[in-house]
Every structure is written in structure tokens, then in C-alpha cells.
Amino acid sequence: MMPEATLGTSGDQPTPERILRLANGYWATGILGVAASHALFTHLEAGVDTAERLAAGAGISQRGVEALLDGLVGLGLVELRDGRYRNSDEASAFLVEGKPDCLSDFAKLKLGHVDSLKALPEVVHDGAPPTATVEVADNPHWEKLVTALAAQSVPAARIAADLLRIADAGEISIFDIGGGSGVYSAVWLGLNPAARSTQLDWRPINAIARRLVAERRVADRFSCVDGDFHTTDFGTAVYDIAVYSNIAHQEGPEDNMAIFAKVRGALKPRGTLVVSDYIVDDTRSGPPFALIFAAEMLLKSRRGRTWRRADYQAWLAKAGFEDVSFHPTPTPATLIIAR
Ligand SMILES: C[S@@+](CC[C@H](N)C(=O)[O-])C[C@H]1O[C@@H](n2cnc3c(N)ncnc32)[C@H](O)[C@@H]1O
Predict the structure, then answer these.
(1) Domains recognised in the chain with CATH numbers
(2) Considering only CA atoms, which residue is closest to atom 27 of ligand 1?
């Protein structure tokens, strides 16, 4: 397969290849999402390696499987050798069910989001959606998203745990704002048996988090506050660590600043805020994932966007954080540690 970097050029001349692939990009969402829905990557990992056997294993037509396999080979997620199919290393690491970093649920979720793009032309015209999905409380959007997102948050939570030495931190109290599936609490309470964690989120989402945290056998040190993080009082000097993961991009500058100021007050004097988000360069020239994600926030929020490092630095300084550092992760998210 032609490497991505060379698509769209032949020698010095531009070619239409890359643009045609981009214009047909929804096929990638479809092929990946449907293959994940039928657990094809899980069957392949178990050694089911022909279209005929995959069709039988997944209970779908052989013609359908053959088209999916062609597409997956084209996308570089499946390899074909001597007539036998197998997962690429990437698919094996991130698309096989049962692995903690599995993104199959996310791929299935995104297949269901394709329809939402129909609204994009009007939203681009108007500058905001008629209803901001991310601002509706008790929204089924969140219930589906948070569990699918958990696999992406696991590596970031682990890296943050290393950076903050969570395992050796003793009796710490953690506050997770918009904690979603409860993944940060599940990972961190698992690493530190003396830590306690509180999550603030909408009531139905907190119910999802309680289930995940109970599955990880750390529920006795986990509590929830049901409510809106814009209006809920965070308390004063109560927490050692606060988390704000995958939230800043749905909020506008004023709300992010107000929340950072509330967090600073809720942290003990030497406390630490961890932010995880898709963060763009100060010149807005990269990285690609964070730049492209801005359109998702245009579609789903009134004021959200992917924000620059300089934005976070300014907001955090204004809120009273003096020491701010940025840390890459193997996912498109960057971690910010602010003290
Ligand atoms: C993108 S998810 C992030 C979940 C989690 N922090 C993670 O990184 O995996 C955003 C979370 O914020 C919650 N949320 C969004 N707006 C909220 C608000 N105004 N008040 C409370 N929770 C909110 C959603 O319910 C959802 O759980």
C-alpha cells in the first residue's frame, strides 16, 4: 500500500489520490465500524483467517465479509498473506475485544455519528448548532460516548499516574470533573489503595461510572456528586489532585477560565490539576487530529473548539496556577500538569 505521506504526489506533481480518499472518507468509518460491530478483529486474532470461516464465525454473508476484508486491507488494518488474513499490529493492539485499550466500541459509535454530518453545512453557516449536544443534561449522547471513550482515557490516566507518582502518594483525595465512565478513578484507585476519589457528572453518567469502578473492585473509595460543573460548588482546599479530561474542548474560554479558578480554590495549596485534551500548536498548524476535531466541537457545542497551548497557559495563570507543563501521550491527547 502507498504510504500516507506520499499519497497525493507523484514526483513533483500533485495527484488526485489523496483528495479522492478524503472525499470517500466515510467509507473508512463504515468499513471499520461494521467490521468492529461483527467482531472481525477478534475473530482474526483467534486465528479465523479466511473469508469463509470469518463469515461463519460472525454469522454474516461471505460476500459481505469479502468486501469488508478488501476494505480493511486497503485501510492497512488487515494483512493478506498466502490467501490468509491476519490483523495488522495496530488492529491487534487496539481493535480486539477484551483488551483494555480496545477502540472497537468507539469505531461502532462513530459509525452512528455519520448522519450528524448532514447538519454541518448549516452549522458552519450559522456558527453554532441549534441545540448544543454537549450542553444537554441527561443526554443519551454521553451515555454512549463515555464508555466508548474510556479506552482512550486509560493510557492518558496511566501516564498521568506515573508523572504524579499516584501509586506512592498515600492518602490522597482526587476530584474528577466530568469524569464520565470513571476511568481515571478506576485506574488511579487501583494503583493506590489509600486514595479516594469523587466524580462530578450528570446523574445517569455517574451510575455508569459506579458500575465500572465496582467492576475494578475500588467502589468503596469512590463517590459521586450529581450535577452541572458550571454551577456546582467544588469546595475549598479539599483535594490533592483534580482531573479535567476531554472537557475543555466543549467549553468556551470564559467557562474554562471560571472552572480553572474554581478548581484552584478546591485544591489544597500544593494540589495539582491534570488536564487531558486535544491541544493545538500556538500557530494552529498542527497536530492534525486536534485541528480536525475542532469541527466536531463546532457541530456539537456553542463555544467549544480545540484550544492552543497558549490559551491553556493564559487561563491557568489567571486562575493562579504557577507551574504548567505539557506532556504528550500515545493517543491524540496531550496532558497538562498544573500546580
Ligand atoms: C467527553 S466526556 C469525558 C469523560 C472523561 N473525563 C474522559 O476523559 O474519559 C465529557 C464528560 O463530561 C460530562 N459533562 C459535560 N458537560 C457537563 C456539565 N455541564 N456538568 C457535568 N458534567 C458534564 C459528560 O456527561 C461526560 O461524562
Answers:
(1) 4-96 (1.10.10.10), 127-338 (3.40.50.150)
(2) 180
